[in-house]
Amino acid sequence: MRYTTHRWTDGQDAYREACEHGDEGVIAKLADSRYEKGRRSRNWLKFKCTLDEEFVIGGYTAPKGSRIGLGALLVGYYEGRDLVYAGKVGTGFDDATLRSLHQRLSGIEQDTSPFTRGPIHAADTHWARPQFVAEVGFSEWTRDGKLRHPRYIGLRTDKDPTDVVQEMP
After folding, report:
1. Which of 1, 22, 102, 164 has a CA-to-CA distance to 67 between 20 and 30 Å?
2. Which residue segments constitute the domains of the chain, with CATH numbers given?
């Protein structure tokens, strides 16, 4: 955690600067409010810096519990001819999206992983031909090259999967 000078104005500038410096985000609070331990309040708000990138969908996991369609997408990016595994995306879906993605992906399933690099430890995995590109928001890359806190934003029908590479800040 890094403490910075309190600002009374220009909150959007403070947020932009924090993201440019690689900080996780900023905390904004109502000037006369006190912190209430263990309680969420609209008087203290967290604004997280996030990244967005496109990723190739190479498979999905089976749903668990009351979840429908699929559990998580397995995504990656191209590095030369290699499809490098970048992680699982298991949030950001509504029921209609889960059904739609499952219908699309189950129609292009294959027996083997399309990922040629990166360990994948996912139970109940369904592999798919790498034909679809997903826009994914996330907080950062982990040390082992996986997405931290990824969330599904949507499909990119305007992007060829083979053009998807890891973006560098």
Report:
1. 164
2. 11-48 (no CATH), 51-163 (2.40.50.140)
SS3 162: helix
Radius of gyration in angstroms for the set of CA atoms belonging to the chain, rounded to a whole number: 19
Residue identified by tokens 């609070």 is: 29
Neighbouring CB atoms inside 10 A of 67's CB total 15
Helix (H, G, I), strand (E, B) or coil at 15: helix
* The total number of residues written for the chain in this structure: 169
Confidence of residue 43 (pLDDT cuts 50, 70, 90): confident
Q: Contact at 8 Å (CB) between 133 and 55?
A: yes
Query: What separation in angstroms does the CA of 137 have from each of 29, 71, 72, 103, 109?
Result: 25, 17, 14, 23, 25
Residue 103 phi/psi, 5° resolution?
-60, -45
Sort residue 117 into left (φ over 0), alpha (ψ -120 to 50) or beta.
Answer: beta
pLDDT tens for 85-128 read 999 999 999 999 999 999 999 999 999 999 999 877 767 899 99
d(CA 59, CA 113): 8
pLDDT in tens, 121-169: 767 899 999 999 999 999 889 999 999 999 999 999 999 999 999 987 5
What's the predicted TM-score (pTM) here? 0.77
